[in-house]
Amino acid sequence: MQRSSLRRFYLDYFRATQDAGWLARLSARQRLKMLEELMQWEVTTPVSKD
């Protein structure tokens, strides 16, 4: 892809998605990876005051 056509692609892409949330711009794989990194899978014991 030539530099000018690559630039045009990104300009068109961001113009088309400018009203979408930033998360909508990510692929499903990227969203799942982000979710995996954010989630804490370790179960912690809740602190209770008795």
Automatic annotation (TrEMBL):
InterPro entries: SgrT. GO terms for biological process: negative regulation of D-glucose import. Pfam families: SgrT. This is Inhibitor of glucose uptake transporter SgrT.
